[in-house]
Specification:
Radius of gyration: 18 Å
Oligomer: single chain
Structural class: alpha/beta
Shape: globular
Strand order of the largest sheet: 3-2-1-4-5-6-9
CATH superfamily: NAD(P)-binding Rossmann-like Domain
Length: 265
Amino acid sequence: MNKNYALVTGSTAGIGLDIAKELAEKGHNIILTARREERLKDISTQLTEDFKIHCDYVVADLSEITAPETIFQFCSDRNYSIDILVNNAGYSINKKFHETAEDEEENFLRVLGISVIALTKKFIPGMLDRKYGKIMIVSSLASFAPPSSGWGALYGPVKTFVNRFGDAININYRSKGITSTNVCPGFTVTEFHTASGMQDAMDKVPAFMKKDSQSVAVGAVNAMMHGKSVWVPGLLNKFLAFICNVLPASLVIRMSSSLAGGRYE
């Protein structure tokens, strides 16, 4: 049996699930990880049946400090070689910064930031041994924009942070056969907004600004396999990323408030 695998975090819904499907369709064996065991079991069975690959899963909550080691040990015990690491797990806190408990913010940073570093650190030695590795960090268009007020003060900053981490991986390891791709989608129709209590804001976003998760997943996997450092889906999102980098923050905030359903209210 081929022991080379793609590991996808947050793989029971949305972009993560569609990335897992896209990789399976391309013939990659898959390791799924998320919190919901029944969903993981069902999806694992479905991917195995639909794409004739081997799919396994490990239940883990990345807000727990021991989760990256649990995932790594699961793969190590079964001799699964992780050639593709997709850091996708994430959510948003739909509260003002002063309304959140400190441990709530710490868990948030662990899922979106620290776990990305921890999993990469644990799996990159094997990639170095094999002189090959593909890493994807599912970031956000928000990483280019000023931090928002209504979607949690830390969401944009932590996405900017993981982008820079991906850049550091490329600078240090591209010459050794390992690349990292920052995937920065804009508004994408998934369960993310409902789970984060932001569906009302998402409903206010114009339809022309929204992408479906399947098309984002297809483009993200293609960008990763071609070793692109950054990939932003769609011409509109690319334009928005550009203007976020060149226009004054005050102007970006005014423009975003009129388009993004109260992001800066």
